[in-house]
Amino acid sequence: MNHAAVLARYDRRMRQDARPDGPGARIERVDGVVRQTAEAADGWHGVLWADLTPATADAAIAAQIRYFTGLGRAFEWKLHAHDRPAGLADRLVAAGFVPEEEETLMVAETGDLPTEADLPSGVRLEPVTDAAGVDLMTAVHARAFGPGRARFRGQLLDRLAAAPETVVAVVAMAGDTPVSAARMELSPHAPFATLWGGGTDPDWRGRGLYRALIAHRARIAAARGYPYLQVDASDQSRPILQRLGFAELTTTTPYVFTPGAAAVG
């Protein structure tokens, strides 16, 4: 893989040419940034891409703060390590943004990945297509990641209702108990299928479920003609993804601004 070329393609197709990530969301290109605003309060609001210079950065940051504050929305500036200008992270912090946990942007070619889901004995994969399936996903993610999954539940239900062809969700079942779950988002206009979730019940970790869910989604992505899989990987998942053949391209950090939580200079 030509890492620089793939990263440039990712920036162009997934960020600069981004499409709305769900029903009721819209993409705008203004003030040197590409941003998304969601109709629903629990949708994703934020900046996906910015083409800024030292002379324009502070004004663009202030403009986005004014815009989202006017809507009464907290929002995220999704900053990648290679974004410019240098020192953009410091400018965001000075403007009142709070950084969250850094993740690693990883990409693999679907043709290079295993596509056979090797599951533990007694475990099967079930597609998630309705509210009952989403509830199973929410339950296992609450055990894997902690409480606070109501936003995820509503977003996935909306996506399955409005554009089911753009999302693949799956839950691993041990009998009647959900033990792992994940989803994949499929933009019809981009070469990257994106992986999300991959949460496993702590009692079931270390049995290959995470790898099996990667293989399951890789098979579907390849069958639908997507040349790449992309994931924002945590420190826990990065070593597994590396062993499967994913390459590190850059890091990404969410910078979150909450109106009223910080003064804007």
UniProtKB/TrEMBL annotation:
SUPFAM superfamilies: Acyl-CoA N-acyltransferases (Nat)
Transmembrane segment boundaries: none
Sequence ranges assigned to domain N-acetyltransferase in this UniProt record: 123-265
Group of enzyme by EC: transferase
Enzyme Commission code(s) on record: 2.3.-.-
Pfam family, one: Acetyltransf_1
Name of the protein: GNAT family N-acetyltransferase
Gene source species: Streptomyces ochraceiscleroticus
